[in-house]
Structures are given as C-alpha cells and as structure tokens.
Here is the input.
Amino acid sequence: QVQLVESGGGLVQPGGSLRLSCAASGSGFSIYAMGWYRQAPGKQREMVAVITSSGSTNYADFVKGRFTISRDNAKNTVYLQMNSLKPEDTAVYYCNAYYSGSSWSRDYWGQGTQVTVSS
Here is the structure.
C-alpha cells in the first residue's frame, strides 16, 4: 500500500512559480512511475508530467519548457517545479504512483492540491 500526500499548492500571480511536492509512504517507492495530473473545473483530468522509475520524463505539450518533474527516491518524494504559470494552469493537481509488472499492478492517487493562477 502506498499513500501519497501532495503539498505546495496555492495562489500565485501569472508568470510566477510554485513547486509541488508529493510524499509517498509505504514501501517500494523507487519501482513506481510517478506522475502529476490536473483537473480544472468542468474538465477531465489530464496528464501533466510523468517520471519513470529509471528517471525518464514525459510532459504534456502545454507545460513543456515551463514545468519540470523530478524525484528523490531517498526521500520517497516527487516534485513538480512550475514556472511561468498561466491562468489556464489553474486546477487541482494530483500525484499518481503507478506500477505494472508481469504478475501485479498498482495505481495510487493523492488527494490533490489546489493551484490558482490569478492576478
């Protein structure tokens, strides 16, 4: 069992920065692919960025060049550095841990943290 707790959300002006953190409890953090997803009011949840267990990253086109995902396996934590924030980045941001192997798979979500970009 893995529990995920996000932090770092808040209100920021356009052009500003925030860093989200997702702390994982439980065992086996390093084997999970970790991702950040977001959901704006009235919209479906969408992928923002993913980092695999080996450190490979993938970003949605709308955040490329602005957001950076990273992980610290020693701290069981994944981060999302968000720069040059835009009002359209306003959403609840969720942390995800995913593993799929030959005999079992797991998919965990955090409770979300609100990010509001507004002047």
User: Anything to note?
Assistant: The chain has a mean pLDDT of 96.
